[in-house]
Design a protein that fits this description.
heterodimer, A: 277 residues, 10 helices, B: 278 residues, mainly alpha, MetI-like fold, transport (chain B)
Amino acid sequence: MNRSAAPGAGTPAFAPDPGTARPTKPRHGAMSGAVVVLLMAITLWAGIGIQVDLPAIVANWRNATANIIQLLQPDYGFFFKTVPALLETLQMAVIATAVGATISLPLAFLASRATNPKPRLLLGVRFIMNMVRSVPDILYAAILVAVVGVGALSGIMALVLFNIGIIVKLVSESLDGEDLGAQEAALATGGSWPKANRAAMLPQILPSFASQVLYTFELNIRASTVIGLVGAGGLGILIDNVRSFFRYHELSLIILEILVLVLVLESASSWLRKKLV
Amino acid sequence: MAISTTERPRASRPVKPTSRLRTTLWLLVSLIVVAAFWSVKIKWSTLADFPAQLIKYIALMLIPPDWSQFGEALNATILSVQMAWIGTVLGIIISFPLSFLASKGLAPRVVNAPLRFIFAVIRAVPEVVIAILILSVTGLTPFTGALALAVGSVGTLGKWGYEAFEGVDPGPKEAVRSTGGGTLALIRWGVWPSAAPDVFSFWLYRFEINVRASAILGLIGAGGIGKMLQDNVQFRNWDAVGMLLLVVIAVTMVIDQISGAVRNKLIHGTWRAPRLAS
């Protein structure tokens, strides 16, 4: 109907011959230059702050060779002593993932624009979640060890807090990207927001939720080998012990165990992810 | 086709298909979780007085905040952030060329495979363990902490890098090839322009990770947040720990906001100031 939009109608709408000159590239040289200078300045400031000292490293290489030779010979006999700690690391990761996922799911619905109609509540939940996420897991662990005592329980709690931060962020972001048609339909039939979300949104995000929980589990395995350094159970306690006595044969066995554990669980979880999603 | 009016639609819902494998997997996962709960050595009774304890310690830490510790807490946090920055910069410098070499189609398979394996191994080892290895070589300074973070960053940056380079649209790549461009031209004109925003974005993301990870390195002597934490938790100086907690939360949130704004600028081209709770 619209004649002017029809191609070939009226005068030919050809641009004049542009010649063979290339279009000029838009320049923002000054801006990029300023950014580079700024980044250099920050790097210089940070470098001075942490006292970058390359000569010292070169000088220290000589006394390092002995340590490295020790590290390359893991003491396999030490394995049986590590089994309880290894089990504890696994238990902590599994329990923390399960608890963290259970707590995170409703929170994620509250933290997503798509599923939470109350702007104030939304902002509040998001702000608290940002706070929870900004504390490193080791800081949680150190404080909780003081509150609850040494052992797996404080470790599990620290990991749960750490997990809630991660899972809520990931799941609420995938909720933001979902299709809202089914939810609208559920609301139109008179369903309340929680009911509509449960019926329409939950089934949509379950597959991605499952894979995000698996990803968190992998993170937990890594984290649960570390938080023991402050006394929160797991392999970290062992690492701390052998490290203080410079028993590098045993340390390298623990590192090998972590490596095998993480690689095995990563391949298992990627297989599981393919099956579930 | 006439619509038959004799057959009324049945009011029953279609049966949901079930997959036996999926059911088995769910059972297995539940079983593992139950087993972990059942076998872990925890006195669950301690949970009963946990809320009271928690409130007590929060009061010790934060009521009132001890501003005399503010300077030390800020210095410790800044040192950790500096460690994270240098670690990220070094990690970028090392991983950038390597991630091109690990991309299929930009380098021979013989080069791809070992690099990918190295990235995977690095990703499997926690940064603290890397730091312990490095400290056995050089002793422990903030700089060594940064080196540990750099090595850890290479694992993730390398992987994300080759994934980004392999995922770019084949069109521009083909265009470069068709005009006779070599591998370097292909990278410069066919791959880099498309991948750049993603790459910058995960560099920022890794910096955020490193800020959090640098806290741990202080525990084994690299200085910064971890060191202050250990010094004060040991002697139960709770007001100092509380101040540190406040400063860490504030600084980390500010860094996340800045990097979120920069990420928006890189991807969408606007400085959309992110809201405080975005």
